[in-house]
Amino acid sequence: MVKRMDRKALKRKHLLQLGITLVLVVVVSLLAEIKFFRIDLTTEKKHTLSQPSRRMLRELDDVVYVKVYLDGELPAEFVNFRKAIRELMDEFQAYGGEKLQYEFIKLYDEADESIRNRMIGELYDKGLSVTNIQVRDSEGGSSTRIIFPGAIIAFGPFELPVNLLKNNPTLSHELNLNNSIQTLEYEFARAIHSLTMEEVPRIAFIEGHGELDSMQTHSLMDELKNFFQVDRGYISGNVEALLNYQALIIARPEHPFSEADKFAIDQYIMQGGKVLFFLDPVHPFADSLSAGTTVALANQVGLEDLLFKYGVRINYNLVADLQCNYVPVNTAPVGEQARFTMMPWVYHPLLAGPVTHPVTRGLNYVKSQFASSLDTLSGNSGQVKKTVLLATSQASRKRDVPLYISMEEVTVQPDPALYNAANLPIGVLLEGNFESFYLNYPIPDGVYPSDWKLIPHGQPSSIFVLTDGDIAANEVQYEQGAFRAQPLGYDKYTQQTFGNLEFIMNIVNYMTDKTGLMELRSREFKLRLLNKELLSQKSQLLKWKLINTLLPLLLVMITGLVIQLVRRRKYKR
Predict the structure, then answer these.
(1) Residue 520 and residue 233: Cα distance in Å, rounded?
(2) Which of 13-27, 155-169, 342-356, 521-535 is the least confident region?
(3) Digit-coded pLDDT (tens) for 282-312
(4) H/E element holding 498?
């Protein structure tokens, strides 16, 4: 009788537990319907979208279509990359709902080769970059195939290419893929934000002082047009003409600025305007250098005192760096047919920046030519934060001008003892509240409007100063009867594409960012790689294979045995 009562009590207990469980499931389901939430258990919160991304996706007023051209047969590392993209798209869709649609395109599913080649050409023309992969065929062999690790995002009649694979030749393949995964949210969010903006922000290239022309800045302007309305024009002392622009770009001026133009720039900064100065403090005559020798002279354009007031001193020197780019040199004896050899040229430094800053994180080297150094100053420059974003390597030196330069220096082995200067600043970002250069000076003649009242102290703003204007200039080649601009950062001799374009785009986006999306470039996902040295030992490899194969089976068996023992003991009572 007692046993029968115990069984009834046990049955009631089980029914009660089942009822409580069902009630909890129903309550959780109702809460999920009322309040949307997601739980991310990863250490780095890699599956958690930032607040700016979530807000942007929730506020979509029309459908955004994302086509990712990374599907089909892929190597293992690209399979993981595709998985990360798909997971991010699922997260985007969780907040964007039906207004965020995506699909993965299998480019090589198209059987007609002519149609497939046309599709490949169209994607390339739209701005997607290609990369080569090795794939195995049905007979066990391998072949090279090009893929587009990127996406085309469309919103209404507009579309934008997004290249997702970071390719820094100084990093391993694993680190490049990890960096690419880290910036996925930023790349997609920035593109969607640009497409869905109601009002396109404006930036201007300043002209009238011998700056780089539209052909020399074609690559940069073409990329900027994806995110801004890009204009070119003269200042002519007109302060009000600058106020509609979020940023001004002054790209390698060669002639002095008038005081009226300097005043207009100063007052633009005082009202929160952003300015990027790409200067050439030293001007070597490249045409003479092609003949063997040249002389490098100071190139003053009248902005030096303005920048000194803001906290930067321009130095009239050339930096030489053992970490440098290569140039072709004729190494054939005199009288023989020319034979060119690629050799390092210390006056073409390869610059790098802090690995943790959003602008330079994961960035390839920036190619420079005849750069000068600069100094940051303390003192009466307002409350200004100064960050060096581009600098030379640990083995560099400064050479004052005037300086004779000969191509014969390329064939001479540099003396490492002379290259004892480290991290010479080339590019610096200034952020804060600036004080007007004209605080204690009269307003210059030629300023418009003529009754302009001086603004002595500025609103929060930012200034970027770079002492090599060539960093913003793309090469121009004459091909098939026309001049054609090459991609910014591309080097025709080494056939490498350096980080010039990405760097300038990053600094422009950083300075003009009002959404907080730029901070996404600071996200870090820890790369947990296997110990290749340990796994190269056969005994260690066998041990870990056995552990990974047998241990899970053993744990399942032990768990099942424990459950059986517990159940038997429970029902014997």
Answers:
(1) 33
(2) 521-535
(3) 988 665 566 677 888 999 999 999 999 999 9
(4) none
Residue whose structure tokens are 């506020």 = 59
pLDDT at 488: 95
CB 122, CB 164: distance < 8 Å: no
Q: What distance in Å separates the CA atoms of residue 164 and residue 151, rounded to the nearest whole number?
A: 8
Amino acid at 559: T
The position carrying tokens 């800045």 is 217
117 vs 162, higher pLDDT: 162
115-122 own/partner pairs: CB under 8 Å, 24+ apart:
120/146, 120/148
CA distance 453 to 537: 76
Distance (Å, rounded) from C-alpha 487 to C-alpha 143? 29
- The total number of residues shown for the chain amounts to 573
Residues 495-505: tens digit of each pLDDT: 889 999 999 99
Residue 407, CB half-sphere, CA atoms under 13 Å: how many? 17
Report the candidate in 239, 195, 228 with the shortest Cα–Cα distance to residue 96: 195
Tokens representing 218 are 């074609």
What are 568's two structure tokens?
């038997």
Q: Which two tokens stand for residue 437?
A: 């250069």
Residue 8: pLDDT band by 50, 70, 90 thresholds? low
Tell me the three state secondary structure of residue 349.
Answer: strand
- Quote the distance between the C-alpha of residue 402 and its chain's center: 36
Q: Which residues partner with 320 through β-bridges?
A: 397
**pLDDT tens digits for 324-374?**
999 888 777 777 777 888 999 999 999 999 988 999 988 999 999 999 999
For tokens 């499931």, what's the residue? 25
Strand arrangement of the beta sheet that strand 340-351 belongs to: 324-330, 340-351, 366-367
- 98-108 confidence digits (pLDDT tens): 999 999 988 77
* Helical spans, DSSP H, in 35-172: 51-58, 76-96, 113-126
Annotation: CATH topology of 51-194: Glutaredoxin (3.40.30)
Give dist(CA 240, CA 369) in Å, integer. 35
Between 47 and 480, name the one with better pLDDT.
480
Q: Give buried/exposed letters for 305-318 (b at 16+ CB in 10 A, else e).
A: ebbebbbbebbbbb
Rounded CA-CA distance 52/58 in Å is: 10
Place of tokens 């080297």: 365
Q: Which two tokens stand for residue 332?
A: 């054939």
Fold of 202-324+350-405+417-522: Rossmann fold (3.40.50)
3-state secondary structure of 448: strand
Q: How many CB atoms lie within 10 A of CB 254?
A: 13
Cβ pair 396, 424 in contact under 8 A: yes
What is the average pLDDT across 135-141? 62
Cα–Cα distance, 247 to 463 (Å, whole number): 10
Structure tokens at 284: 């070597």
